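Readers of this paper often ask what the protein records in our data store actually look like. The remainder of this section carries one protein's record, kept here as part of the documentation.

:::
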Amino acid sequence: MIKIFTGRLLLPVESKPLAEGALAVEDGKILEVGHSQKITKKFSGAENVDIGNVAILPGLVNPHVHLELTLHGPRKGVSRIPFPFWLLGMVVGTRIRRKNHFVNSLQNGIEQVKSSGTTTVGHIATFLRDPSEFFMLAGIRAVVFLEAIGLDPAQSDKIAKKIKGEIDDFDAKSDMVKPGISPHAPYSVSRELFRKLAGISKKQKIFTTVHLAESADEIKLFESNRGAFKKVFYPLLGLRKFAPKPGKMTPVEYLKDAGILDSHISAVHCVQINDSDIAILRNAKTPVVLCPRSNYYLNVGTAPLKKLLDEGINVSLGTDGLVSNVSLSLWDEARFVKRMNPWISSEQLLRMMTVNAARSVGLSKIGALAPDMCADFIAVNLTGFDGTQDIYDFLIANTEKKKIQGVWVGGIRVDNSPPRIF
C-alpha cells in the first residue's frame, strides 16, 4: 500500500528544500517527491501520514563506527599519551572481554546511533563477526566491515581464506545488512594480506575501509622506520620482526604502491597527509571519512578538511567509537566541525552525513530523498524555526536526540526500541 508522508519542510539533500513537501512511499521505496497537494492528489487512495511541524530529511549515515566498543566509553578527556600507547591499551583491554560484553556494547551502540537519527552504519566487526541479527532487530541498515589484522606474510593466505569464508557465510536473509572488509591499517596489515583482501573485495564486489595516516607515529614508522610503533608497540606484542620497513614513504604512498587504492576503498581519518597524498587520493577517487572528535580526543591532529573538499574528494563524517569519542551522534560531530571550521556551510555538513557517507560505504540507494531511493528518512522537530533562518544552519545548531520526532527505514518506523538479545 502507498503511504504519503508530509511535513512542514522536506530536505531531499540533492535538491532544494520544499515547503509542505511530501514523500510517496511503496514497498520500502520512494515513488515520488513533491508538494503535498500534488502528491496527495496523484495518489488519492494512499494512506496519509502528516508528521507535522518537522523537517523530513534522509536518515543519517555513519560510515565509520566501532559499535562493539560502545561500553568502553564515552571518552573522558584528551589523551596525554602517544597514539601507539593508547592503541596498545585498547588491544589489551578488549582481549580480556567475553562475548556478552560485545553483544551488550553493540546493542547499546545501535540504540544510540538510531536515537540520534542514524539509519545506516559502516560498522567495524572485530569480535562479533556476523552481527546481522542485531541490526535487523533494530531495523537499521549496516555495512559490516570484517576487520583483518596480520603482519606475518606467511599468515596472509590463512587470514584471507577466513575472511572469504565469513563473507560467503554472511547472513543473507535481509538486504539491510551487507558485508565489507576492513584491513585495519598499514601498520597492522602486511602488504601481502592487503593485496589478497583487495582481490577478494573486487571479486565479491564489496567495499573496503582502512584506518589511514591517523597519527604522527604512523608517519614516522613509514618515512623513517622510527617512533613508538617501532620501539614499543611491536616489541610488546611480539611483532618486531614483522614491522613494515617501507622507508621514505607516507602511508598513503605505501597503499598506492601496494596497488589497492581505488573508489571502492574508503580512507578513514587521513589526519597526517600532505598535498601529494591528497592528489593520490583524488586521482584514485578514494572517498575519505573524517572523525574529527576522535582525532581531537586522541590528540593526533586535524585533517586538512578544506584541501580535501577543494580537490573534489568525497568527504564524509563518522564518529568512530566511544573508546575515542564522547557520543555517537553525527549532529554532535557536525557541530564540532562547524566550531573548528566556521567557513564550512551547514548544507555541506549535511551532505557529509548523508549522501557523501552513503557513497563512501558503497550504497547508492540511500542518503537522499528521490524517486527509486530507499525510504530511509527522519523527522526533526522545527520548534523555534521561524522560517527566516537558514534551515541547514538551524538543523546543525539545534538537532539533538529529543528533537528527533521519528525514524523510518524502508518506510517503516523503527524508533521504538526493540527487545534486547542476551
Remarks:
- The first strand starts at residue 3 and ends at 10.
- The CA atoms of residues 45 and 82 lie 62 Å apart.
- The chain has 16 helices and 16 strands.
